[in-house]
Amino acid sequence: MTAAAGGTILLLSDVHAHYHVVDLQVAHAEARLGAPVSQVLALGDFGLFADNLHRHFRKARRRFRRPVAFIEGNHEDFRAFDRLVHDYADVVTYLPRGSVQAFGERRWLCLGGARYMDSWSTPPGCEVSDEDIRAAMSHAPGSVDIVISHDCPTGIGVPSEGEREHLGPPGVAGFADLAAHLRPRLWVFGHHHRWHRHEAAGTRYIGLPQSWEGYVLVAPDGAVTCVDHLVPLPRNPGWWRWIGLR
C-alpha cells in the first residue's frame, strides 16, 4: 500500500467505533492545510465490531472521505477479526502486525496490539507477543523511518494509570530494544488516551489522545505537527465511560 507521494498523512488513535470522527478531523486538518490529506492511519482501537461497521458503512452507506488504514488495538472483535477485515476491505485497510508499509516517501513499521491492560480487556489475539517482537527485530537497522503502534515502549515516561499500577510500568518492554535496533526517527502510539512527548537516542516519541481530542500530521518534508481539536461526541451508555471509552 502506498499513499500518494507528496501528501500529508494524518495519524489518530482510539476511534472506538466513532467512525464519523475520522472525517471531522480530516476536514479540520484540510482546512488548516489548505490541501487534501493523502492518507489516514488509525493507531489501534479502531472499533472493528460487526454491528457498528454494518450500521455506519452498510446501512447508512457512508464512506471515509480519504483512504483510511488501521493497526489493531485491544478493543476490536478478535473472534471475527479476519472476517471483518475481509468484509470491510472496501472502506478500511488493515496493516498487519510487523509489516513495513510505504506511505509517501517513508517506510512505516506497523505494530498493532497491546500489553499494558487488565485481563478483562485483553481478548485473545490482541496481546503483543515475544514472537511479534522477534519478527519486527528481523528488519535491518535503518530500514524503517517511522514506527506506529498501539501500545508504547517502556521507559519513555508514560505514567502509570491509577487503577492499573499493579500491572507495572506502562508499555511493552521489548519495544525499547526494537527502537534501539531500528533507530526510527519517529514513533507514534495510542492506547493511553493522552498526549505524550519524549525524545531519546535520536527517536522522537509521540503519544496520541483519543481520536476526538486531536491528531498528528506528518508533512511531505517530514515535519510533524500535533494538533489539539475536540470533536463533541453524543452521550454513550454509562458502562462505556466506566471502561474508559466515550
Structure, briefly:
The protein has 246 residues and is α/β, with parallel strands linked by helices. The protein contains six helices and 13 strands. α1 links the parallel β2 and β3.
Can you offer a commentary on this structure?
The protein has six helices and 13 strands. By secondary structure, the protein is of the alpha/beta class. The strands form two sheets. A seven-stranded mixed sheet has the order 1-6-7-8-9-11-10, with no helix packed on it. Strands 5-4-3-2-12-13 form a six-stranded mixed sheet, covered by helices on one side. Mean pLDDT is 90; it is low at 239-244.
Q: Which structural class do the helices and strands define? A: alpha/beta
Strand order of the largest sheet: 1-6-7-8-9-11-10
Helix content: 10-25%
- In sequence order, what are the helices and strands, one letter per element? EEHEHEHEEEHEHEEEEEH
The overall strand count is: 13
Task: Work out the strand percent.
Answer: 15-25%
The chain-level mean pLDDT equals 90
Shape by Cα distribution: globular
Enumerate how many helices there are, as a single number: 6
Main beta sheet strand tally, sense and closure: 7 strands, mixed
Intertermini distance: 31 Å
Radius of gyration: 17 Å
Low-confidence stretches: 239-244
